[in-house]
Amino acid sequence: MDRQFLEELERITGDGRLLRHEPMSRHTTFQVGGEADVFVRPDEENLSRITGLCARHGVEYHIIGNGSNLLVGDGGIRGVVIGMTGMPSRLLAKGTLVTAGAGMPLAKTAAFAAEQGLCGMEFAAGIPGSVGGAVVMNAGAYGGEIKDILEKVVVLGADGRRQELGAAELELGYRRSCIPERHLIVLEAVFRLASGDPREIQAKIADLRDRRRDRQPLEYPSAGSTFKRPEGYFAGKLIMDAGFKGCSVGGAQVSEKHCGFIVNRGGATAQDIRALMRKVADGVEAHSGVRLEPEIKMIGEFPE
Ligand SMILES: Cc1cc2nc3c(=O)[nH]c(=O)nc-3n(C[C@H](O)[C@H](O)[C@H](O)COP(=O)(O)OP(=O)(O)OC[C@H]3O[C@@H](n4cnc5c(N)ncnc54)[C@H](O)[C@@H]3O)c2cc1C
């Protein structure tokens, strides 16, 4: 990364919005991860100028939302990390449509919908991601998923142009979309909800929140479910049946409360977490013949 690139980037981003050697442990819910060469939180206007600059200089960039589904390697991230949560975020309702900026917390969006007497988004109230990250991951819980309620998105294309895409164009599937492979950046999402009784909606949100609190190890840093749910099984049960409840590598542990979560019990490195994931996946395969696939995304450098 040469000086000219950095000077230009600093000019675009403005004072205080560019951080060098930024520990990614500050930007991930696992609270692990080495340093990003450069971390920026642009506003929408600057975003396309930054991606354009990176393209011209051959510098890689990585988009992150709230970092709640990420395991960043201890070696950090080369290039530029673009954090989307600093964007000035819109949140508005028109009829049964709710529009939210990509950096807006999903939980806040669901709470806003509830206040407007709009139902359908209750499942999302306890998911700690941003709207953009939730669309990319087709986040879901308790029988609902983003795919059920997403009408359309506004994205920034690899060519630097804004465009609108209908939900059907995003190939939303189980915890996936085609957004990363098409190098799109979500700027805004529009959800189609339905009218409902605000009190009933609030009650459903409160019930789901209580169920999460009872069953999930929310007291420790994690990235939610470590593995995808294999068809016909539950990852947590497979892990428990294979005897991994409470199993640790360094500071990483298979949660004793919910085996589907690997938690950071304090001082875990990305290497600890990755080694534990491998150990669990191998052990479960040997025990049940089912290979678990990671749900969390691994980015950056993982020195052996
Ligand atoms: C305690 C806990 C509970 C959880 N429960 C659930 C659950 O019930 N259901 C569930 O589905 N998930 C759950 N998760 C996982 C996580 O919250 C979701 O996957 C969430 O949607 C990720 O959003 P994020 O903003 O944190 O994305 P990040 O983790 O920052 O990024 C995820 C991916 O999205 C990309 N991305 C993020 N924003 C954008 C954007 N604007 N444009 C383009 N690409 C973008 C990133 O590049 C990355 O590939 C949980 C996590 C935790 C810690």
SSE topology:
Blueprint: H1 3-13, E1 18-23, E2 35-40, H2 44-57, E3 61-64, E4 70-72, E5 77-83, E6 91-94, E7 97-101, H3 106-115, E8 118-119, H4 131-137, E9 140-141, E10 144-145, H5 146-149, E11 150-156, E12 162-166, E13 185-192, E14 194-195, H6 198-215, E15 222-225, H7 235-241, E16 248-249, E17 252-254, E18 261-264, H8 270-288, E19 297-299
Parallel strand pairs: 2-5, 3-5, 4-19
Antiparallel strand pairs: 1-2, 6-7, 7-13, 8-14, 9-10, 11-12, 11-13, 15-18, 16-17, 17-18
Helix pairs in contact: 1-2
The structure holds flavin-adenine dinucleotide.
Flavin-adenine dinucleotide (FAD) binds next to β3, α4, β9, β13 and β15.
Shape: globular
CATH class of the largest domain: Alpha Beta
- Reported by name, the CATH topology of the largest domain is Uridine Diphospho-n-acetylenolpyruvylglucosamine Reductase, domain 3
Task: Spell out which ligands are present.
Answer: flavin-adenine dinucleotide
- Share of helical residues: 25-40%
Q: Distance between termini? A: 24 Å
Return residue spans where pLDDT drops below 50 for at least 5 consecutive residues.
none
Number of domains: 3
What is the CA-atom radius of gyration, in angstroms? Answer: 20 Å
